[in-house]
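TICKET #2291
ISSUE: user wants both folds in one file
ATTACHMENT 1:
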Amino acid sequence: MDMDISQKMTVSELTELIRRTLEGNFPRVVVEGELSNYRPSSTGHLYFTLKDSGAAIAAVMFRNRIRSLSFEPRDGMLLRVRGALSVYAQRGTYSIVVEEMERSGEGDILAMLEERKRKLAAEGLFAEERKRPLPRFPETVGIVSSPTGAAVRDILNILRRRAAGVRVVILPAPVQGAEAAEIIARRIIQSNQWKLADVLIAGRGGGSLEDLLPFSEEVVVRAIAASEIPVVSAVGHEIDWALSDYAADLRAPTPSAAAELVSANWADTLENVRALGNDLYASVKNRIRLTRLLAKPFSAGDLEFSFRSILQPALMRFDQGRDALLEGMGARTTEIRRKLDLARTSLEAASPLSALERGFSVVMPLRNGKTGPAIRRAADLKAGERLIIRPLEGYITALTEKTEARPGIVPDEILPPETASVRS
C-alpha cells in the first residue's frame, strides 16, 4: 500500500493540531478523581495524577493558584479540580492545568476533620480545665466575623436590646475561602495583643460543611485555645459544628445565642437589684424596731446595776490576786535575805583576813626582787633567804637562819633562853 505523501505532516504540525483541537474544545473542564503520585516541586508548583478505575491523567497546579487551597493534598484523596487541558508539545503529552482544587465528597471532609480533632485533642487544646468562665458584665464585646454578614447584624440587634451600654468592636474577617482561616486567627491574636475586648464572639451564619471549614483549621483552633480573652464559638446553625467549638471557652448554637450568652439582661438585673434593696431596707427596719422594743424596759439605773453586778466579781478576783501576789513576794523576799546572811557569814569565815585577825601571819619568800607564794612547808626555804611577813597590819622583813623539816614545836635551842624556861 502506497503512502499518500501529499497529506504528510511533521511531528510539530500534528502536535499543534492536537493542541488546538484539545485546548479549543476543552477550554474549561471539571474532573473528579483520586489523587496519586503527588509531588510538589522545588519551584512551588504541584504535579500529580488524577485517576479512576479505568484511566489516569496528569495534572499540574502552578504556585500562583496554590493560595486558594484550604487543605494539604495527600495521595488517596478524592478530589474535584477545575481547569483546562494543555498539550506539552516537547513530550507529546497532555495534562490538566488546575486552577481550583477541592476535596470531593463530604465523607472525606468529615474523615479529615475527625483526624484533625483527634490530633488537637491529644495536644490538650480541648481540655475542660483550660476553659474559663465568661465575664458576667463585659464592657466590650469583640466580634470576629464578616462585617457584612447576617450574623453580625443579629449579634448587634440583640446586644442593643439586652445591653445597650456595652461597647462593640467588630474585627472584620472573611468567613469562607482559602484565606479566611489565617485572617480569623490573626484577628483573635490582635485582639489579645491590644486588649480590645473582655469577651470575643468568633463565628458566622449557616452554610455547607465546606463553607464552615475555616473555623476548623488548625491555625484558628490554636489561636482560640491560646487566647487570654474568653472566646465564644458561634458557627452556623444549631446542627452545624466546627473544631472551634471544642477549643472555645463556650459554644453557642447560633450567633444570636452567643450575643445572649455574653450580655446579661440589664433590665432584669436592675429589677433584681431593686428587689434586693427593698428586702434589705425592710430587714434593717425590722431589726431597729425589735432593738427599740428590747431596750425600752431598761432604765439608766438598771443598766448601772447590771453593769456593777457584772464588774464586781471581776474586781474581787483582782483584789484577791493582788493580795496573794504581795504576800508571796514578801515571803520570798524574807527567804532570800536569810540565805544572803548565811552566805555572808560563810564568806567572812573563809576570808584570810579572819585568820590574820586571830594573830596569824602570811610568810612569803623574796626572790629576785619579787615575792613568791606563801610558805606552807619549811622545806620550801633555804637558810639565808629573805622573807616578807604579812600580819594583819603592815609587813615585816626577815632573814632565814635555819629550816627544819620535822613536824612539831620549835626546838628550845632556837628560842631565846627566857622563852625556853617558861615553856619548860
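ATTACHMENT 2:
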Amino acid sequence: MNKRVYRLGCDIGGTFTDFVLLNDETGAIQINKCLTTPKDPSDAVEEGIKAMLTKTPGFVEQLDEVIHGTTLVINAIIERKGAKTGLITTKGFRDVLELGREKRYDTYDIFAVYPEPLVPRPLRLEVDERIASDGRILKKLDSKEVKRVLHKLLDMGIESLAVCLLNSFENPVHELMIRDIVLKEAPDLSLSISYEVLPQIREFERTSTTATNAYVKPLTGSYLAKLSGRLESLGSTGNLFIMLSSGSITSADTAKEFPVRVIESGPTAAVISGVYFGRMFNVKDIFCFDMGGTTAKSCLIQKGEPGLVSTFEVGRVHRFKKGSGLDIQVPVVDLMEIGAGGGSIARISKLGLLQVGPDSSGADPGPICYGLGGKEPTVTDADLCLGYLDPNYFLGGEMKIDKESAQRAIEEKIAKPLGVPLIEATWGIHNLINETMVGAAKTHIAEKGGNPKIVTVCAFGGAGPVHAYGLAKKTGGAQNSGSTYSWGWVGTGNVYRPQSLRPSTKP
C-alpha cells in the first residue's frame, strides 16, 4: 500500500490554473501553472498534474488529499451559463426576485439597470399554500397542484428546480412534500429547496440564494464528478476537498449539493494564506490584494482576522455600485472587487480617453503576447513591454511570449490614436489600472476603519506581485517621510518569488 505523503492544492482562475504540491514528510514544494481550459476546466487540471509527474513521478498514487478552489461557479453566474431553472413558490410571491428590497442603488439615476433574475418570470410558478410565521399551517399544500405545476415546468424544458415557500424555515413540511413528489415524478431533475440551502428569515435573500444554487447545481455537479473521475483515472485515491467562500473546506459531495457556498472559493484561499503569513511574521493589519487574469479583489485583515459577512453580491451591473448585483446570503470572507485583471483589455473610449477593462481576454484567446489569437492589447501586454515580465522566463521558461506583437498592438491601437510615444501609452495602461485599484483600495480600507499608510500589502494571483509595488506606493505609505509603513508580497506570479513580510521604516 502506497504511503500518502503528498497534498495537492489546485486553483482554477479565469486565465491560469495553478498547482502547489507539498510533501508532508520532507516539506518539499513543487509548483506548476498552465492555461485554463474554459470549455472543460478539468482538462487543465489533468494536463497540469501530468506535467508535474515528469518532475515527481508517482506522486498521484501517494496523494492524501486534493484541495481545490475554482471560479467556475461565479463565472457561470456572471456569464449566464447555468442551467435553465424553474422556481416553485407560495401564491403571491412569484415576483419576489424582481421586487427585491425595493431599494435603488443609485437614487438619482432614472435609467438605473438591474440584473435580470436567474429564473425568468415564465419559469416561476406558484402553489396555493400558506404557513404562518410561527410555523402553523394556515393552508395545506395540494399534491395534485404540485404535480400539475411540476409537469408544466418540465414541459417548458427546465433542467433544475428551486423551491422556496413562505416561512418554510420555521416549518419545512410543504417543501419536503414537494421534494418527495419531484423525486418520484422527475428523479433526474436537479433540485434545491430553501430549507436545505438557506433555512433563514428574509424572503428575498432566501429565494435569491436558492435560485442561484439551483442555477449552478447541474454544472457544478457535472464538473466535480468529471474531476473526481479524472483524478481516479490518474491513480489518485486521496480525498477531494473544495474551498468554501467562508475560508473553510468541504467535501466534493457537499459542494455538488450546495455550489452557492463555493462562489468565492478562489479569492478566499488567498485571504486564508494571507492570515497564515501574517501570523508567521506577526503582522496583524494586512491588505490582501488578489489580481488574476479577469478581476482584482481585496480583503482587509485586521488584528490577524479577516472580515466575514453573511451576504454579498454577484454579477453587478455596475461593478463598483453596491446594490446592482444578485444578492446571495451565505457566509463569505469580506471581499471587494477593486479593479480589472492582467487580461483586461485596453482601448480608446468614445471620449477619446484611455480605458482599461472591464472586459477581459481571459484564457481564450488571452493577451496578444500569448500568441493564441488575441488581438486587443491588455494589461499583461503592457507589463511585458515595460519589463515587469521576463519573456524568457514566463512560467519558469516553459511558455514563450511575444513581446514584439504586444508592442505593435499598443502602438497601433493606443499610442497612435492618443498621439503619444509607445512608452507613454504602455505606461499609461499600467498606471491607469493601478490608479483604479488604489482608489477602490483606499475606500475599502477606510470603510473598515483601517489606515492605508500602515497596512501590509500581501499580493496574490498571476498579476498581483507585478502591481504590488505600484499599489503600495500610491496608497501613500511609501511616499510620506517619517511615517511607518510595511508592505510585501506573497504569490506565484511570473516575476517575483515569495518575499519576507518584514516591516520597514521610511527614514
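RESOLUTION: both attachments delivered.
EXTRA DETAIL ON ATTACHMENT 2: The chain is about 35% helix and 20% strand.
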